[in-house]
Write a structure and sequence with these properties.
The chain is of the alpha/beta class. 42% of the residues lie in helices and 24% in strands. It starts with a strand and ends with a helix. The mean pLDDT is 95.
């Protein structure tokens, strides 16, 4: 499959994939690119008058500024806050790989650059015998790993980057998400990024600074932070693979 874009995964749930994705989308939109987002499956969706709404999809659509309908960002919306396979089985839904690929093609075909944000980490099960890694491999996009800077993230980051590379998935690099707020582990927070850089073959694409919860929907500010803290030109280059 040929498309311009990146595949954003993370060390685990809550790493900050949506925050980083929104920052990248709005920054690229400000540069004049027609960008779009695709979140193959969103779980933990809320019921709005009998219709499921994904909060991540809403944020991604607004950040992209392309007129994309939030309900069209994902191929599947599920209620349960669990792994896609688990949530789907609980709700009597079968996630179809072909549906995921068709939705991706439709979104990518209408944009200059598409950002795919996965659910959870890299080996999260999507359907029977099918994980996020399998989807990433089929889409053929360069992967970006978002790493939440906290105690334990070094191993998670290196394992994710190693699995990406060994799976034949092109790796654009990793982005550190400086979540802050952990006074008990200041040494780890101060050294995580540099330690990962010393051991990872993948590129260090920068770090997002700590952002208060109340400011995470200020997409213009997120874009400015992405421009000043992330290697956006390297991301664009990787996205042309």
């Amino acid at each position: 499959m040929k498309a311009r874009g990146i595949f954003v995964t993370g060390t685990d749930t809550g790493a900050g994939k949506t925050l980083v994705s929104c920052a990248i989308l709005r920054a690229l939109s400000r540069r004049g690119l027609r960008v779009a987002a695709f979140k193959p499956v969103e779980t933990g969706c809320r019921d709005d008058g009998g219709e499921l709404v994904g909060e991540d999809c809403e944020r991604l659509a607004v950040a992209a500024q392309s007129g994309q309908n939030a309900r069209d960002v994902a191929a599947y919306l599920l209620r349960e806050p669990a792994a896609p396979l688990v949530a789907a089985e609980a709700e009597g839904v079968t996630i179809d790989r072909a549906v995921l690929l068709r939705r991706f093609e439709a979104i990518a075909g209408a944009a200059d650059f598409v950002l795919v944000e996965s659910a959870g980490g890299l080996i999260v099960p999507i359907a029977r015998g099918y994980t996020t890694r399998d989807l990433a491999r089929e889409l053929g996009l360069a992967a970006v790993c978002v790493v939440a800077s906290r105690l334990g993230c070094i191993s998670h980051a290196l394992l994710t980057l190693e699995v990406l590379a060994s799976s034949g998935i092109p790796v654009a690099g990793y982005v550190m998400n400086e979540i802050g707020g952990d006074a008990a582990h200041t040494l780890a927070l101060r050294t995580n990024r540099e330690t990962i850089r010393r051991f990872a073959a993948a590129a260090d694409l920068g770090a997002m600074p700590p952002i208060p919860v109340a400011a995470r929907d200020d997409f213009e500010n997120l874009a400015l932070l992405a421009e000043s803290h992330l290697q956006l030109d390297a991301l664009l280059q990787a996205g042309r693979l």
